[in-house]
Structure formats: C-alpha cells, structure tokens
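Morning F.,

Quick status update on the modeling queue. The single chain you submitted on Monday has been processed. Sequence for confirmation:
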Amino acid sequence: MRSTAGRSAPRRWPPHGASGQVLVAKLDRLSRDVRFIGGLMAQRAPFVVAELGAGVDPFMLHIYAALAEKERRMISERTRAALTARKRQGAKLGNPDQLGAGRFDGCGQHSRGRAGSPTNRSNF
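Structure tokens below.
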C-alpha cells in the first residue's frame, strides 16, 4: 500500500456545501447542440439559464436549444457565403504572413510592437 504522507486529500466535486450548479446567461452560451443540452437534462446535471429562470419547463429548454442549433447553422451559412463572395472578388483570405505576424513573446505582448503601431520586420 502506498503512503499518502505529504499528499493532499483528493478533491471532492462539488466542494462540500456547494450546489454544483452551472449558471449561464443564455442557453446558447452553454451549447448550440440540442443533443448536448438534452444529455445534460437526461443526466440531471444541474444548470440554470438566467434568461429563462431556475424553474423553466424542460420542454422550453428543448425549444430554446433547437433555436440555438438553428442559429448556429445560419451563422455558418452566412459566414461561408461571405467568404465565398470575398474570394470571388479576388480577396486573399487568411493570415498573409502565415505565422510571422501572429507571434507573441512570453508576456502576452506582440513581438513586433504594440497593436496599431508600425511593425518592425527586422526582428525576424
């Protein structure tokens, strides 16, 4: 048997005394997938949607989940259509420097200067 000396006790989830509920402002911030939301409800995972309130009917959650999923599809279609239109206009899409302009130094600052300032390409 292993010794547990020097180790902390395993953590419990939810922590003792906590409700373990997930609180989200809107259902689509949790997921835009009906099956995922339905799975949470089937597993009785505690979550509260602030926009709908704590005592919302499960049927309404399914309706809102279906609307969120439809919105996800519509966003995808609009984005795809806009990108296709830009390509037809001759625009080059993506990062023109591949990875060069997107490099960051270790402290979260862009390695080529502050945002909005001219870049110093002599560093690379």
